[in-house]
Amino acid sequence: MTWTLPEPMLTAPVAGPDLPPGWAAEPKWDGYRAQLARCTDGRVLLYSRQGTDMTAVFPEIVDAALAQLRGDTGLDGELVVWEGERLAFERLQQRLARRRGAAALAAARSWPAHLVVFDVLRLEGADLTPWPYARRRTALETLFADTPLTALFTLCPSTTAPTARDWLTWTSASLEGPCFKRLSEPYRPGTRAWAK
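-> structure tokens emitted (196 positions)
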């Protein structure tokens, strides 16, 4: 695979929770930002927002990618761990302390991570980053419908309706409110063009 994961597109804070026209909203999760690549040579790569290799830390995500994703595919999302009906960020932190081998496998059994996928960057060799968000979102929904991807992958909700404001009330589940993405915008690595 000659393609590499791009630098993540980031968010910038905005004053209010109202969804602007021409934008979509997604919930902002309390987890670790992660990009995943399923390579043509059979490898799976999982990297943090800062570029840290987390592949060995989350073997269950690697196994799910090998079983469910086609080669030369790249996803962008958030790693989360659920504890009952809330996200357990502290469990995710504990997972990082058990970085390799038997300790990572035991941690995966005790506190499995899930990848909440909110973007598709590459699909079977095609670079989707120049596509507008709305087109990438359609491709992502099609990927989940056609594959179909199942646990440990979850499709992040997305809406263009004003109901995104309701996500502010989900703090008991450890969501951080809405994230806004312009429907017409391509994936611009390293920029803070999304809003939160």
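The chain has a mean pLDDT of 90.
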